[in-house]
Amino acid sequence: METPENQNVISNFIKSNTAKMIMVGMLTLVLLIPLEFVKNLIAERSQRQEEVITEINDKWGGNVFLYGPILKVPYTYYEETLSINEKTKETVKQRKAYTNYAYFFPEELKAKSNVTTKVLNRNNYESVVFSSKMKFEGNYIHPDFSSKNIVNEDIQWNKATILIQTTNLKSIKDEVKINFGNTNLTFEPVYNSNSKVTTEALETGYIDLGKILNQGKTAFHFDISYNGSQQLKMVPIGKTTQLSMESNWASPSFTGNFLPDDKTKQISANGFVANWKILHINRSFSQQTFNNLPDLSQYAFGVDFVIPVNQYQQNERASKYGFLVIGLTFLIFFLIQSISKIKIHIFQYTMIGLSLIMFYTLLISITEHSSFMKAYIIAGISVITLITLYSISILKNRKFPLFIAASLGSLYTFLYVIIQLENYALLVGSIGLFAILAAVMYFSRKIDWSNGNS
């Protein structure tokens, strides 16, 4: 049976700031549940966007990756086998002829690419696509088979072809023709039954290299136009490879194994211009290969045409600070309650917390029909106004609600700045949180936590 003395201890503890802080802290943890539901909603909408982008890109044209032209020359090689004649018991030597292929890369390869981008929309979702016009020119030197001890008589010069390895065949907009040594040739698609090979091939018909190649350099040039999305990359197969790319996309992400020249690179609000120059000593494959054409995708370079931070990424970043916003807002109300002796019921804390969570549902829903900045402003003003008006009825004056409105406005502004920053987000966030902690320590320094007297 409880004594009056024990009842007084329990009653005093319940009325103390410590007990109130424990209840507010527990409520903050409980509000993480609906906040997690909001995060799941953002993730679900983001996943839906990815599905729509994939569908749009599949119809318009996917990533563009190519390398060529590649000179493909067949040659004859021989294998000797030994067998025993059953009747004479003599060893018989047999020599069988087989055909294999040698692949030769250009001595010089120069490419110019003009890329025009645009944003395609479907419902509330958008994807970046592009149209690329690419011009190639360069030259070949006479193929050398001496490293494999292949004699000229075994080289099938009259059955050579020219290859282009690429992806996204379905989005090539025009017929692809090449002028090779003043001979015009047309590329045709080649069926590839090897499911492990990610690229497709364009190949010309037979050409007689014995009549086309000269002892010096044999020039070539061809054009190719693509509809593509997200990425454009090529492989530097020339002994000297140069690429000049110009586009109206203002946020390029240079990707792959090589970066453009910083001295000539230009990026502005109207687009970018970039130039690459790559030598054969910069990559670890030779200018010729025999038997099989290797996978050279690891040496590719180019540009990603993607939206740097999309609306769902920004919403996801904002929701990660939800716990901080709820905790700091409750802390402000708690300090006001402790200093002013105004009683705030746990139900009123709950209503304030749910209002703060509504900010994120408003943000994601408005963002899908407008820009993130406009949605942030509308959602922020709505929530701050709601909490301020509610605070007037709770706190029975206008001084503290105005302080709360100013604090929430500063907090949301601070979080918006952090969301927009990339390189300095951690630094600015750390400094801001340090300032907030210092302010809390200053205003709470005279509070008596045992009985609520300040």
From TrEMBL:
List membrane-spanning regions.
20-38, 321-340, 346-363, 375-394, 400-419, 424-444
Q: Which UniProt keywords apply?
A: Membrane, Transmembrane, Transmembrane helix
Task: Extract the InterPro entries matched here.
Answer: Uncharacterised_IM_CreD
What superkingdom does the record give? Bacteria
Cellular component (GO) terms are: plasma membrane
List, alphabetically, the Pfam families matched: CreD
PANTHER family with a match to the protein in the record: INNER MEMBRANE PROTEIN CRED
Q: What is this protein called?
A: Inner membrane protein
